[in-house]
Design goal:
39% of the residues lie in helices and 12% in strands. With 277 residues, the protein is α/β, with parallel strands linked by helices. Helix 2 packs antiparallel against helix 6 and helix 6 packs across helix 8.
Length: 277
């Protein structure tokens, strides 16, 4: 029963306290978290989803590390979502998007890609801690609901891995982040428009070296021409949302957008869990 399962969990936590995925300290899972203070001016259902996702994260990370996670501050670039230096400004195009226009209409991220969140994402991707997909996916969904409220998205496309990397890792982390959106929304009685997820449309045709550690020019060169499209009729005339785990320079999602627009997509936006700033 649920009651006996809860008792067992309490007993196991007492005898074998979990280790924080970030700092490796033993900790006691926290059931309360002031996460709603981090998202001002949002609807109650977005705030509830954000708080619940944070609460689930405290099963894996100590409260000190979870408290260190930071949301992207405003104001931000209207295109790439980068925080603007002056806190007094309204949202407007940043210098980089003026100098280097993007193919996507807009990109948004939920969290700052700092040391703590980087460690959690790396555990998720490289140590197969796939149970993190639910809380991280909930945070991502809260960002989607906040940034695309009232806008139509026809389909979701996780940024694909090359087949060899997919075989080595065993999963595509970007797909796992959005796979549970419907279940999350249903569980919290949130109305979510039907948005099919296609994993066989946008494909990566060339193996690339990891983008980590590469400069802007190297990143652009590394992903140039690496994506292709199967079943282009599925994106023709459609409003597409490309989803990835981290936005650094935007080279990857911009190349995805370039490919999709070439095959007739009406519009391409991008959503990531984290963003380097």
């Amino acid at each position: 029963s649920c009651w006996s399962g809860s008792l067992l969990k309490i007993f196991l936590d007492a005898v074998f306290p979990p280790k924080c995925l970030v700092c490796s300290r033993l900790f006691k899972p926290n059931t309360r978290h002031p996460a709603n203070e981090r998202l001002p001016d949002v609807t109650a259902e977005i705030a509830d989803l954000f708080v619940e996702s944070y609460r689930l994260l405290t099963s894996f990370c100590c409260s000190d590390c979870v408290n260190a996670f930071a949301t992207i501050p405003s104001p931000m670039c209207t295109c790439c979502g980068a925080p603007l230096k002056s806190r007094q400004d309204q949202n407007h195009l940043c210098g980089d998007c003026i100098a280097h226009p993007k193919k996507f209409r807009m990109a948004r991220a939920v969290m700052v890609f700092d040391q703590q969140l980087m460690t959690v994402i790396h555990r998720f991707k490289y140590a197969a801690k796939t149970q993190l997909a639910r809380p991280l996916g909930g945070l991502l969904l809260s960002g989607f609901m906040r940034q695309w409220e009232g806008e139509k998205i026809d389909l979701l496309l996780p940024v694909p891995l090359h087949l060899q990397k997919f075989r080595n890792r065993g999963f595509n982390q970007s797909y796992l982040l959005i796979r549970s959106w419907k279940a999350i929304a249903d569980g919290m009685h949130i109305t979510l428009a039907d948005m099919p997820i296609y994993t066989d449309v946008l494909i990566r045709t060339k193996a690339t070296v990891p983008q980590t550690g590469l400069g802007r020019r190297q990143r652009l060169k590394n992903v140039k021409g690496v994506f292709s499209l199967r079943f282009p009729e599925k994106v023709y005339g459609k409003k597409v949302l490309v989803v990835d785990d981290v936005y650094t320079t935007g080279a990857t999602v911009n190349e995805c957008a370039r490919t999709l627009l070439k095959f007739g997509a009406e519009r391409v936006d991008a959503l990531t869990l984290a963003r380097a700033i």
